């Protein structure tokens, strides 16, 4: 059965955007604000070749989505093709770093589900403090706060914080760094941004709000719903029945994932709800309190996690270490952690992991075979097109 031929798929409707006082949120269509001149096309062609064509924009706003995917947190900044295209350019542009060496995509690489297979990522003045989080299906999540410690209230707010971080992209305005205002001036002097902002907004003004809006639209457009799980879920009435396209081991893992601990399951679904497999926004710390590079430090502020989709690529290879401190090199390691959690000394541990009334920690009594079955099920959550679709790829000519 071909995924795109399945009749149960319906597109999510294109929503009208809200207007803001600064007129940065007024675009409500998938086309630019004016006709594209031949001169503009030639200017962009010199930088992007055929990768960016304003007369034939890639489809970001009206992608096919399974009808059982109901979450959508993009209402205040709905995706349009034109601004997501601008966001794609910004996402891959190394000019957004102070020394022109780092882009958003340096730490969030398409080949690794928009994460990094290194434990921490290299910035302009050092390394990131935590492992780079996968950016899969951020639109389809209940948790709308960002960073591992949820310090950004929205994805929009998150997008410019790494730019203003001294270690990451260097426009902090501290320690001799240039400021964000310096970045905006820098971008206004780049010819292709004059053309792209004119096309998207009707003028060449570049502001932080516009950077945030367009970057967030591009990131929310990154979706992955062509996995083995999706192929099985489409023809099943619900997640609780065996999927006909699964192996026995995968169905066993699925059953363990959904069955609560008091019924001899793992209860993973309590925090990672299907079918999006996003994190419950009320979740507290998961028992991982390490700090990368400092064996004596602890950090209980981490309460967020990415979706469980695309932990592995479509070849079954893990897309990098797990957890904020990259302390789990494999899914088996992570599952063994959840199988036996010590609550001692963790004041922010999620109550669901405290092991009941005693509160001493969780012990699921999963066998080695159970752990491997759960890993097999998690592998079914990995798609294919997210790694190859050119609309999410680097638009710059190399």
TrEMBL record:
- Extract one GO molecular function annotation from the record: electron transfer activity
Q: Where in the cell is it found?
A: Cell envelope
Q: Which UniProt keywords apply?
A: Heme, Iron, Metal-binding, Oxidoreductase, Peroxidase, Signal
Give any Gene Ontology cellular component: cell envelope
Major subcellular location class: other
Q: What organism, scientifically named, is this protein from?
A: Aquimarina mytili
InterPro entries in the record, alphabetically? Answer: Cyt_c-like_dom, Cyt_c-like_dom_sf, Cytochrome_c_Peroxidase/MauG, Di-haem_cyt_c_peroxidsae
Against PANTHER family, the record matches this protein to: BLL6722 PROTEIN, CYTOCHROME C PEROXIDASE-RELATED
Q: Where is the Cytochrome c domain?
A: 82-191, 248-382
Q: What is this protein called?
A: Cytochrome-c peroxidase
